[in-house]
Specification:
Two copies of one chain form a homodimer.
Chain A (H helix, E strand, L loop, with lengths): L2 H11 L9 H11 L17 H10 L4 H10 L9 E6 L6 E6 L4 E5 L15 H9 L19 E5 L2 E11 L4 E6 L4 E7 L9 E4 L5 E5 L4 E2 L11 H4 E10 L6 E11 L3 E7 L7 E7 L15 H4 L5 E8 H9 L4 E3 L2 E4 L1 H6 L3 E7 L2 E6 L5 E6 L4 E6 H9 L3 E4 L5 E3 L1 H4 E6 L4 E6 L4 E6 L4 E6 L14 E6 L4 E7 L8 E8 L15 E7 L6 E8 L7 E5 L14 E2 L4 E2 L10 E5 L2 E9 L2 E3 L2 E5 L3 E8 L8 E5 L4 E5 L4 E7 L4 E6 L12 E7 L2
Parallel strand pairs in A: 12-17, 37-40, 39-45
Antiparallel strand pairs in A: 1-2, 1-33, 2-3, 4-5, 5-6, 6-7, 8-9, 9-11, 10-11, 11-12, 13-14, 14-15, 15-18, 16-17, 19-20, 20-21, 21-24, 22-23, 25-26, 26-27, 27-28, 29-30, 30-31, 31-32, 34-35, 36-37, 37-38, 40-43, 41-42, 44-45
Chain lengths: 682, 682
Amino acid sequence: MSPILKVVVGGSRKGGAVKRGSLVMVAVLALVVGAVVGVVGARLGGETATGGGLADLAEARGLDGQQAEAALKTFVPPGEYDEYYMFASGGHSGQVLVIGVPSMRLLKEIPVFTPDSWQGYGYGTDQGNTVLAGGSDQDKDATELTWGDAHHPALSETEGDYDGRWLYINDRANGRIGMVDLADFKTKEIVDIPNISTSHGGVFVTPNTEYAHISSMTPMPFTENGYADLSEYNEKYRGVSSWMAIDQATGRFDLENSFQIELPPYTQDLADAGKLTSFGWGFINSYNTERAVGGDAEGGEPIETGAIAADYDFLHIINWQKAAEVVAAGDYVERNGMKMITLQTAIDEGLLYLAPEPRNPHGVDVNPTGDYIVVSGKLDPNVTVFDFEKIQTAIQNQDFQGTDDYGVPILNFDSVVAGQVEVGVGPLHTQFDGDGNAYTSMFVDSAIAKWTLGTKAGVSEADAFKLVETIPVHYNIGHLVTAEGDTVAPDGKYMVALNKWSIDRFPSVGTLHPQNFQLIDLDSSPLQILYDSPIGVGEPHYVQMIKTDKLTSRLDVYPVGTDPATMTTSEFATAPGEERVERNGSVVDVYMTALRSHFTPDILRVKEGDTVNLHITNVETAADATHGFAVPQHNIEASIDPGEVVNISFKAVKSGSFAFYCSEFCSALHLEMQGWLLVEPK
Amino acid sequence: MSPILKVVVGGSRKGGAVKRGSLVMVAVLALVVGAVVGVVGARLGGETATGGGLADLAEARGLDGQQAEAALKTFVPPGEYDEYYMFASGGHSGQVLVIGVPSMRLLKEIPVFTPDSWQGYGYGTDQGNTVLAGGSDQDKDATELTWGDAHHPALSETEGDYDGRWLYINDRANGRIGMVDLADFKTKEIVDIPNISTSHGGVFVTPNTEYAHISSMTPMPFTENGYADLSEYNEKYRGVSSWMAIDQATGRFDLENSFQIELPPYTQDLADAGKLTSFGWGFINSYNTERAVGGDAEGGEPIETGAIAADYDFLHIINWQKAAEVVAAGDYVERNGMKMITLQTAIDEGLLYLAPEPRNPHGVDVNPTGDYIVVSGKLDPNVTVFDFEKIQTAIQNQDFQGTDDYGVPILNFDSVVAGQVEVGVGPLHTQFDGDGNAYTSMFVDSAIAKWTLGTKAGVSEADAFKLVETIPVHYNIGHLVTAEGDTVAPDGKYMVALNKWSIDRFPSVGTLHPQNFQLIDLDSSPLQILYDSPIGVGEPHYVQMIKTDKLTSRLDVYPVGTDPATMTTSEFATAPGEERVERNGSVVDVYMTALRSHFTPDILRVKEGDTVNLHITNVETAADATHGFAVPQHNIEASIDPGEVVNISFKAVKSGSFAFYCSEFCSALHLEMQGWLLVEPK
C-alpha cells in the first residue's frame, strides 16, 4: 500500500522517459522499493510522426506553419526535461522563480524576502523565521520586514562561468541581499547591508564568486539619525558600492572580509563585473547625477524632469582588486559595522574613475571576452560601447576631461569609447551570444535590437558595431536574457524578453495584468517569437538562464535528521522510538517524528500559558515524501521535506482543542494523519 | 514617448491576434491613443503548415508521433487565448491559481488567505489588510491569521451552470471561507465561520448560489472555552454544516440569513449540492465515525488505525430547503452569532439522514442530472452510486436499518444504492462528461478510471455501471477535473489530473518537489496524456474549469477613483490638481496622485511620531498602467491598478530620509518615478 510502490507500478505501465539527471532519483527510489523495472526508458507513444497527420492537426487547430513549428520547438513531452532553468527575480513578490526552457513552465517559486506558507517559510518554523528576522534591521525601532523587491539574481561563477552552487539576489526596496542554496533550493541567509537604504545596482558576482556586489540606488544621509533635509543633499547624502565577500565553503556572506566604497550622491543603477580581460574591475551606471530631489507640489519640478537635464551621466569604473588591498592595508573607516573606503581614499588610491555616458543609462553589461562594456541611455537612441583597454590607457595617461563636483576624475569620452550603434528608442539592457552579437532591449519601442560588437569579440572590421535586425515584442520590455548570456561562454539558442506589459496578450485576469515572458528562437533568421508566457506571480526584473545539468549539487532527499540551515545533523533530530515530551516548568519540549500516516506523539497536552517547543523529524527517506504540520488558529504551518528537522516555538495563549494535521498530501491515509493539541484552561 | 502609443506601434508591426474578449481593451486603448490600426487581426506567420517540415522538426527534437500531436493539441500561439480558465486552490499557499487550458500556463495567483506583496495585499494598504483582518477571529486573545489552507474553490452558479460572477473557497486549517470577485480578480471578503475549527467539506454552492456551503472537518467542543478533554469526545465534540447565504448583488456573505446544522462528532469530509432532480438537498461524506482520537504515545493507536476499523462510514443527506424554512420559523438556537439548528431538531424535522458508505470515503459527487450521488471509499476498490429517487422513497417509507449513536436515522444501504463499480485501489474523487461517463481518481493506483453511470444518465441498461478503461497518471493523484465537469452541462474535451507527487517528472528543484497537473485528452480513445504541468507555488487540491468567455463581468480598468472594496467611487479619490497635504496635530493626511512618471506630491515632510494617512489615486485610464508604491524600511508596498484608490496608514516611528518609489515598471522613466518621505527627528 506504499504510494512509492504504487508510483513505480504506475510508472511501469506508462512511466516517463527518464533523463540523465533523474537516475539519481531512480536510485533513491530503488532503495525504497527494491525494484524500478519499467520506469527507465519507457516512452509515451513510440510510433514516429507522420507529416500529413501533423499538418491536418495543425489546420484543425488553426495553426499556421510558423505556429505549428513553434509548437514543436517548445513542447517538452510528459516526463522529459527542459534543457535550461531560468532563475527570475520576482520583483515586489520578493521571491525567485524557477522556469524551464523551452517549455516556459514555472517549476517552483523560491521564497526569499517574503513569507511563503506552502513552504512553511516564515510561519513559525525556525528556518524561515530565522532567515527573515536576520534580514531585518536589528535596530529595536525598526519595522520587521516581511517583503522585498527582488531585482537581480546572480548565479555563482567559477572562472566566469555558472557553476550551479548558489544564487544571490538583492532587495531593491530595503537595500538587502539574500543567498539561495541550489542544493535544496532554500534561502539560507539575508543580510541588511549597512549604509544602504535602497539597492538597484547589482547583484553581480565576480568571476570566481570572490564577492557579490550590491550598491545603493538612492543615496542616503551619512548622519547619526539617518535624516538630513534635501537642502543638504549634496553635502550629506552619499552612495555606496558594497563588495560582500563569499565564504567558498558555504556560499554565505563573510562580513569580516567585505568592504564598501563611498560614492557621490548620484543614483547608482545597474552594475556588472569585469571578466577575462577586465578581471578585477567592476562597473556601475548612474543617473540623476543632476541630483534633482523633486518638489512638484512645492513649486519645483518632478524628479523625472530634473533628472534628465544633463546630456551625460557617469559610468563608475572601480578597481575592486586594488580596493581589497587598500582595505587589507587598513586604509578604511568603520561605519555601522562595515569597512568603508572613503571617497577621498578611493580617489587618491585610483580605485574609482568616471566616464561620461549618454542620458539616464540603465543597463551596463560586459561582453563575454571582457573587452567591451555596453551601456544604454534610456533617452539616447544609441548603445555606447566602452573599450576596457582604452579605459586602462586613459587612466595611465591621466586622459581626463576634468573631475566631478566631488573630485572624481572623469575619463575623456572620445578616448574610451569603442563605438556607438543606433538601435532605437528607449534602450535598456544588453545580452550576448557566442558569435559576437549583442541583443539590446528597448522599452519604448517594444522591441529587441540585434547588433554586432567589435573585432575584440571576433567580428570583422567591416561588420563591427552594426545593427543586424530588430524584433518587436509585446509589450514594453525591461530586461532580456540569452542562454548563459552574461558568462564567458554564452550558448545562444534561446532568448527571453521580459515584457512589463501584456495588455491584450492573455485572457483578462482583472485589473492587474500579468507580465509576459516571450521566448525567441536565436537560431532563426529573422528572429522568431516562439511562445508567450504569462507571469502572474510577481514582476520579474532580471533573469539568468543556466543549463539544467550544471546544478550538480542538487539534493532530492536530506539524510534523515538534517537541519537545512547548517546542512548537518540537527541536535533535535529524533529517531523512531525516541519520541518524547520533556516538561520543565511551563516549557514543554516535544520530540516528534512524522511518518506516513501519523505523527508520534499525536496528542499534546499543555496548559494555557505554556511555551511549547516542537522538534519534528520527517523520518521518510523517499523523494517527494514531504509532510506538512499545521496548527489551527495558531498561524503555524511547516513543510517538512524527507529527512528534514524543523523546530517550532509558540506560546499556548488560548485554551482549546486544536486538531493539528499534515498539510501536504502524503499517502492514502493522509487525511487521517492528524493529532490533537489540547490547551487546558488555567 | 507614451508607452501606450509605442505599444500600439509595436503591435502594428507584429501584434497579436486579438480575440473577442480583448476588443474592449483595444477600445480602451483607442481612447488613449486615438488609433489602433494594425493591432486587430495581425497574425504571426500566415503560411500554412507543410507536413514534411513538421515531421522533420519533430524528428529533430526526438518527438514521436503521439508527442508531436500532443504539442499541436496543447500549443496556444503567441497572442491567442486559452479556451478555458482553471481556478485551482493553492492548498497551504492560501491562494487561488488561475491557469489556462489547454496551454496549462499560470495566468495569475489571486491572494486570498495569505499576504502577497506583489499585489500589495496585506502590506499596509486598506484593501488587503481589511480583508485579512476581517478573516481573523475577533477574539482579542486570538492570533492574527496570515495564511490559510485553500482547498475547494466553488464558482458561482445560475441554474446549476457556472455564471462567472464570483468564486468561493474554504480555509481547511482555520475553518474560514473567502470570496473572490471575478470582475477584478480580487478577494473582497473572508469570514471566520463560528462554531467551526477546521473545514474540509465544501465549499460548494447551491445551483443558484443561494448558499455557499462549508462544514467542519474535525469536530470541536461546544464549550465556553473551546476546550474539552478527548475522554469527552462523544459528548462534547460536535460537527457543523454551515449554509452561508449569498447577497445576490455583491456576492458577499449575508450572515443574517445564514444558518448551521449541528452534526455528530464524525469527521465530515467533502460535500456536494444536489441539482435538478435533487435540487434542495446537500450531501456530506464522513470518516472516523469510529471517533478515534489517537494516542500513539500513550499506549493507544494512531488515528489512521482507529479510524479505519469500521466497514462503513456515513453519507450525510441534508434537506437544506426545508432547513431554511425551519430557521425562518424560528426553530434554532443562537451560537456565537450564528443561527444553529440542533441535532435533535434536525432529526425531528427530517432535515438529516445518514446512508452507510464503504470505508473512509473521501469524495462525494453529484452527476449532471442530479440523479446519482457517487462516493468513493479510500479503502474500498469500488465506487458506490446512490440513487436520489431511491433515497427519497426510503425516507418516505422510513426504510431505516437503525439509527446512529446520536439518533440519526440510517437508510437501508441496499434500498438506496443504484450500483457499484470496481475501479481500483484508493478511489477518491469523481467528475463527469456529458455522455454519461464518470472519471474517478485513484491515489494508490496512480490512475484514473473511466466508467459508466446508469440509465438516468442516458446510459443503456446493458452498458450501465461498467468500467470502460483506466489511465495511469504520474503520480499519486488527488482530485481531478473535467471541463465544467461538476455542472449540469459538462463539456468533456479536457480532463486534468491533480497529481500530488511528481518524483522524477521534472528536473530537480530541491527537496520539495512540485505537484504535477496532467492534461488528458477526453476525446482520445484510449485516453491520452497531453502535457505535464509542474505546480511549484502551492499544493492545489480541487480545481474548477470554466469557459473563458463565461467571465463576462471582467474589468480591465477601473473608472478613475474606484475603491475596489465597494466598486464605487472612493471618498478619498483625488483628481490631478486636487493633491494636498492636510495636517491635524500629529495626524497627516496626504491626497496623492500617481501618473507616469511621478507622484504628486513627491516630497512628504513629517515628524517622528506622526500618524500618516496616504490616499493615493492612480489617475491612469489605460489597461495595464499599474503603479506601485513602496516605502523603504516601512514594510509598505501597494499595487495601484489604473483608476484605483488605495489608502495606507502608518506611524512614522523612525527618523530618516526614505526614498519611496513606484515598484511596478510603468514607463521609460519608471526609475525616476520616486519621491522622499522625510521623517524629522523629535
